[in-house]
Design goal:
The protein has eleven helices and no strands. It is mostly helical.
Length: 256
């Protein structure tokens, strides 16, 4: 007896699979969060900007750790060779630094002590929980899902361009040096996306693998959205949780 596969068990064609992934960005990416509209429109107070920089640091500094965890599981040297450029983009060289050092330059620009920000003190519990869950996801889930979770980068260049324009237009601290992190990501993220999207579309050959990739990308949008929900609740609504940064802490000392 021949068993005909159910329609929902059949693999999606490549175009439909990609469209499903891209639809997640249109529906769930954090560019739709009201905190970003507030930030890019110049409506954030400096306390809110500083809170964003401090909490986003935990995410930025965890990205190379997430990618190192991925590499530790990857047996294909060609894949490792390509993926390790992500760590190089964030950690950079000893002299020039990379994305992490550029983020600390932003912290300095908004009036924070970079050493305070780099210490991780003051990060909100919800931020820490969400980011650490992402690192564990990439460390523990199958490689296809782990790779697919990074595909939020498909949607990032537009928000970076909007952020550059908004920060330069509305905030005195913003100049080409302090917001260099975002300008670099305009070229780094598309490079990563071209490889990763093709890899996921090519190697997720079963419907189960495709659905796992879609779910992984949705999970990553939840990670990003949860961080902004925490910021809004804590610093816009004024419900700062115990242990989180309080306005006035970690300020950069000004030298005459």
């Amino acid at each position: 007896m021949t068993i005909t596969p159910r329609h929902d068990d059949l693999p999606l064609d490549r175009g439909t699979f990609e469209a499903r992934l891209r639809r997640i960005g249109a529906e769930r990416y954090h560019d739709r969060h009201p905190f970003h509209a507030r930030l890019h429109g110049g409506l954030c107070t400096m306390d809110e900007v500083q809170a964003w920089v401090i909490n986003r640091w935990h995410y930025q500094s965890s990205i190379p750790m997430k990618d190192a965890a991925f590499l530790s599981r990857c047996r294909d040297p060609d894949l490792r060779r390509i993926w390790r450029s992500r760590i190089e983009d964030h950690d950079g060289g000893v002299e020039a630094g990379g994305g992490i050092r550029r983020w600390l330059r932003l912290a300095e620009g908004v009036g924070l002590d970079p050493a305070y920000v780099a210490s991780g003190r003051g990060v909100m519990p919800a931020t820490r929980f969400a980011v650490d869950a992402y690192v564990r996801f990439v460390r523990d889930e199958p490689l296809i899902a782990a790779m697919a979770s990074s595909l939020t980068e498909m949607f990032a260049p537009a928000i970076h361009a909007e952020r550059i324009e908004g920060l330069l237009s509305h905030y005195a601290f913003a100049d080409r040096e302090t917001i260099a992190y975002f300008s670099h990501r305009l070229t780094e993220a598309p490079k990563d996306v071209r490889f990763t999207l093709d890899w996921v579309l090519t190697h997720a050959t079963s419907r189960a693998e495709q659905e796992a990739a879609i779910a992984a990308l949705s999970f990553k949008t939840d990670v990003l959205w949860a961080q902004l929900d925490a910021l809004w609740n804590g610093y816009v609504e004024g419900r700062i949780p115990p242990g989180a940064w309080r306005p006035g802490e970690g300020r950069r000392e000004m030298h005459r």
